[in-house]
Amino acid sequence: MGNCSDNSINLILIRHGATKSNKERRYLGRTDESLSEEGIKELLEYKKLDRYPNINYLFTSPMKRCVETAKILFPKIESIIIPEWKEIDFGEFEGKNYIELKDDVRYQAWIDSNGTLPFPKGESREAFAQRCCSGFQSMIDLIYQIVDKCENVTKDIGLVVHGGTIMALLSHYNGGGIYDYQVPNGGGFVCRLKGWHHRPEITELKKI
Questions:
Q1: Contact 67/154 with Cβ under 8 angstroms?
Q2: In Å, what is the CA distance from 83 to each residue of 63, 79, 91, 95, 109?
Q3: Is residue 129, in this structure, part of any structural domain at all?
Q4: What is the dihedral of CA 86, 190, 20, 42, to 10 degrees?
Q5: Buried b vs exposed e over 97-136: b needs ≥16 C-beta within 10 Å?
């Protein structure tokens, strides 16, 4: 199995559709909010425009906004839940936006740190990235079991997750800073998975 090609897997990373909090530019992490009507409409429009490639397998965060997005975009494919891909816990910033936080000295300190400080009573960027990568390795373990990598056919694997999850995964497996990988709701990347089980690497990124 180790002699088979490492170039047979495409990853399609998609950020979930918009929620009410997203449109209000609030920090939406642990709150399990559903898609808004506007968010659903946007996804259906993107789908009508063939924005998303076809996929063979589908993995998602367990949160409603991701599961609902997956069902809209890929209704015939059963998704596999990766619990570690929940969005970051924003702690005491959860549900608030810039206007509500701008006079909070803790928020200003977080901004000044370029987002490296842990959120008050929440999660640190480092801890979040570690659990996202742990979930990614779990996904690879599952792929390793279900995909015949020696078959000369490219497999397309969809990930419907959070913006933060995409940023954490790509900065770790492709390099660069996390803010290099920001995408809007319904946006994402098509890329290649190389290295497979022992040293995975994500390469050849193209924005959706």
A1: no
A2: 9, 12, 19, 21, 30
A3: yes
A4: -150
A5: eeeebeeeeebeebeeeeeeebbeebbbbeebbebbbebb
Q: Which residue has the higher pLDDT, 148 or 145?
A: 145
Residue 183 in any domain: the answer is yes
CA–CA separation, 169 vs 174, rounded Å?
A: 8
Over the stretch 40-69, which tens digit does the pLDDT of each residue have? 999 999 999 999 999 999 999 999 999 999
Angle separating helix axes 125-146 and 163-173, nearest 10 degrees: 80
Total residues found in the chain within this entry: 208
Is pLDDT at 5 greater than 60 in this prediction? no
* Cross-strand bridge partners of residue 201: 194
Looking at residue 187, which CATH number applies to its domain? Answer: 3.40.50.1240
Give pTM, 2 decimals: 0.91
Domain that holds residue 201: 9-88+123-207
- C-alpha 67/C-alpha 60 separation (Å) is 6
Q: What are 198's two structure tokens?
A: 């022992």
With beta carbons less than 8 A apart as the criterion, state whether 61 and 85 touch: yes
With respect to residue 19, please indicate whether it lies within any of the assigned structural domains. Answer: yes
Structure tokens at 67: 């599961």
In a domain, 28, yes or no: yes
Number of structural domains in the chain: 1
